[in-house]
From TrEMBL:
GO terms for cellular component: alpha DNA polymerase:primase complex. Accessory subunit of the DNA polymerase alpha complex (also known as the alpha DNA polymerase-primase complex) which plays an essential role in the initiation of DNA synthesis. It is found in: Nucleus. This is DNA polymerase alpha subunit B. The lineage of its organism: Eukaryota, Fungi, Dikarya, Ascomycota, Pezizomycotina. Residues 384-619 form the DNA polymerase alpha/delta/epsilon subunit B domain. Residues 239-347 form the DNA polymerase alpha subunit B OB domain. The keyword ATP-binding does not apply.
Amino acid sequence: MINTPNSQSRITQEDTNTIAITMADPVLEELNERFGSGDKPLEQDVIAELRSIMRMHQLSAQDLFFKWESYCIKMDMDELKASVQVLRNFKQDIQDALERSNRSQVHIKQEKRSGATPRVGKGGGDVFGMLDGLTSTPGGARASKAAPRKTPTTNRVKAEPASSPLKLEERFNSLGVVPPSSFNDRANAGDTIEVLNEHLQPADPPISPFSESRIKLTAGSDQKKLGYKPLAMKLSEASEILDDRIEEFMNLVMEHHGLDESAFGNAASQSTSEIVAVGRIASDSLEGKLNAASLVLETSRRMGGGLRVPLNVKQLQGYQFFPGQIVALKGSNSSGREFAIKEVLELPLLPNAASSPDTLQTHVERLRGGPDAMDSDDPTPLNILFASGPYTADDNLDFEPLHAICNEAADTYVDALVLTGPFVDIGHPLIASGDFDLPEEANYEPDTATMATVFKYMVSPAISRLVSANPSITVLLVPSVRDVLSKHVSWPQDVFPRRELGLPKSVKVIGNPMTFAMNEMLLGISSHDVLFELRNEELVGGRSKDRDLLSRTSRYLIEQRHFFPLFPPTDRQRLPKTGAGDGVPPGAMLDVSYLKLGEMVNVRPDVLIVPSSLPPFAKVIESVLVINPGYLSKRKGPGTYAKMTLYPPKNFQPDAASGGMLAHKIFERARVEITRI
């Protein structure tokens, strides 16, 4: 509008500048897209605060939004609404994290400078590398020189001390580090962090254990196939597996959207015609995080000769991609240099799990608790606990959190306890150094002791006491690639040998990943932290359809029909550090030739257990109850676990369109509590 001097409305110079900035500033536009609500733009003071944080920490708008998402999860904020006061708290949180990081780097540098002090060459009982700079006593040095190299003949699995002994607390104090607090002194033990389906009442524990198990286990995947020979991968086989996955999804998309095969084409070929291209998301760079500039589509051999073509996402209002994701894209490659995406087609989901009315009725009868139960008794809901390792803090091998959850399972007579590894963590400082004692009651041959001996005398006793107190309980153990006693080092992972572990016969060890049924409930579980890696590698831009980080990363698994859809996995250097050695964890250790063993087959699981270092949660996503129980023990303190109360079905009348089958709808019948141990 052109204003005359007589106009009632005037545009000031400040207004003109604001309009010009709004129209010309892409950063401002991106901030409004990511932090704004609906079509309402951000207030000027909010924009100023966001720009201040970006300048101070040299962050892009996307990186700032990622940090904002993490902060909202950390502060348990449901709505991503930015205000000036909240952003100032957010800025302080970033600053505090930066200062903690700088302090830790200073400590590392100090340790390196003091490393020239003469020391005994072999560890010398230094658990955390905290004795650097302390001169070894002459006696200790002479003893170490004279001692021949042989297996210790005492009950101590430890190198001989090379310096004056210091208490663990003194070692932490010498570095200015706060030592882990005592497990018995933990705060808020038993507090409930989150509840799903709060309207369902938690079941009262029975007066005594049931006379027989109320759970029937049925394998949903072939566990014998996990016994493949690891570290024998052939590149030709791996390439075929990756290519076959693209072809399978192309057929699924064709059937789901009712498309003819002529609608599909080669995204790498120059053409003005609009086609549907199915392929795998990848990056054109081996290093760095996926971004819009490095985004490429890897085609199948049949449709595109396996070529990679850059993707143009400018026409999309929002998108979310990660390396390894199979996508169906509608667009064209008119220039011959890039494929311009017009639309991302929806991938078909697996059908929901269902059972016949007779099968469901049989499971309900089993809930009555055996032949001693009265026919008039209402079935008691199932009580199941889910927990994930590590099961002890970094400063000890007492496994107090494991004992605590086993006591909880024994006291409340739960029906099942599902534990995922790692049980004896390869990243634990004491395990890595060999500086620990076995219990005094341990009876073993020192010359033949292995890590299975450690499991037998440190982990198995807690589980054995649980089974003795609650004989009808079902206990399941799922290994991890971080388990030091596992001889199968690749994922997908075979069970670890139980012969020398001292486990009760009723305890079952299953593969990783595994799909199985507890009565009618189909449960999928994998111990690897795939959610963290997806969070670390994903590319989210524009107005993403799912702005909740935890829901979005969980949805990837369901849409991709796989327990580990990411390829390649995250670089080990970018994973959360362990407390041992250089702090680099083993990572996913994928055996690509056997990735099909990680697929979800035929139907969606009713419940998906995905232990992760991300905040614990229980969410319903595409009719799947997704649970992250968290870790039972964090490196310096206690963690969390999940408690499920599953009520029996009440409707046994199938719909005419369902073919006589009834969907389980576990997400409607299960109360899930995330609880502090």
